[in-house]
Specification:
It is built from five helices and three strands; from the N terminus they run ααβαβαβα. By secondary structure, the protein is α/β, with parallel strands linked by helices. Helix 2 runs parallel beside helix 3. Helix 4 links the parallel strand 2 and strand 3.
């Protein structure tokens, strides 16, 4: 909903297999995949790897609510992949998407500042 709210067209998939099937059936339609790290059937890292192999022009952003355990290991294994820690703000999401693929409805724009993809969670007190 956040991505749609920012004006970008959205297609959804329930898991990595469904996402790959859609990408294979509609090559050239998708410019970016925003995926959770932990998913059924295929984790976000494996999905990112398969997308890079099949469609190297498609950008990938991974997200998770935690950097602990399996999610943290996957993020560390794919340091070149932008990562957002949930919850993230509209501003963080927009900065990431516009940096990677441009403003909604337009071509990728200039990249004056790379957004901070990795951020530490505030310690709980």
């Amino acid at each position: 909903r956040m991505v749609r709210g920012l004006g970008y067209p959205v297609r959804t998939a329930r898991n990595g297999r469904e996402a790959l099937r859609h990408l294979d059936q509609h090559p050239g339609e998708v410019r970016l995949v925003l995926s959770d790290v932990i998913m059924p059937y295929m984790d976000g890292g494996e999905l990112a790897e398969r997308i890079r192999d099949r469609l190297p022009g498609v950008r990938i952003v991974l997200m998770s609510g935690s950097l602990e355990g399996e999610a943290g290991e996957l993020v560390a294994a794919y340091p070149e992949t932008p990562f957002l820690t949930k919850p993230f703000s509209f501003a963080e999401l927009y900065a990431t998407l516009s940096w990677l693929i441009g403003a909604p409805g337009g071509p990728p724009g200039p990249r004056p500042v790379k957004p901070a993809f990795h951020r530490e969670r505030e310690p709980r007190t």
